[in-house]
Design brief:
Length: about 160
């Protein structure tokens, strides 16, 4: 009985630690998604109609940096781990559904709400607005006002 309670206590503590890590890095996912939207990566995935390699994504967005496919792969890996996009491993012979070679990425169900299309996406521009510099800096102003109001209460 005591072992079960100790194990449950450790499990709860471990979950609390994981949550703390997720909260500490909570800005990473929105910033990577913001970059993917600004670089038209989400549009490239949607328009491809299937899975494409990081090199193909870099080509479609007009990247000039020779290291762009590696950077795109890292970004896509993060977005795929959060279910924003989908991925698969490409076999060395070029076919999908393999266990080697490079990863390929495709649009997930969420992407149709984020991509610019004929119907006009509502979520992508809203996301970019909310993650934009002016909007984000306004939080610092609001937080600063709260700090100053607390200072005034002391007098």
């Amino acid at each position: 009985m005591a072992n079960t309670q100790e194990r449950e206590g450790r499990d709860q503590e471990e979950e609390a630690g994981k949550l703390a890590i997720r909260l500490a890095s909570a800005t990473v996912l929105p910033m990577v998604l913001k970059s993917a939207l600004e670089l038209n990566i989400i549009d490239a995935l949607v328009s491809s109609g299937g899975f494409i390699s990081p090199a193909e994504i870099a080509s479609r967005i007009g990247a000039k940096n020779p290291g762009a496919p590696v950077l795109v792969d890292r970004m896509m890996g993060l977005l795929a781990s959060h279910g924003v996009i989908e991925w698969r491993a490409r076999r060395r012979d070029g076919n999908g559904d393999g266990d080697g070679g490079e990863r390929e990425y495709g649009a997930g169900p969420m992407c149709r709400f984020l991509a610019n299309d004929e119907e006009g996406s509502d979520i992508g521009p809203l996301f970019l607005l909310q993650q934009g510099k002016v909007f984000m800096e306004s939080w610092y102003v609001i937080l600063g006002l709260g700090y100053h109001l607390r200072l005034l209460e002391q007098f």
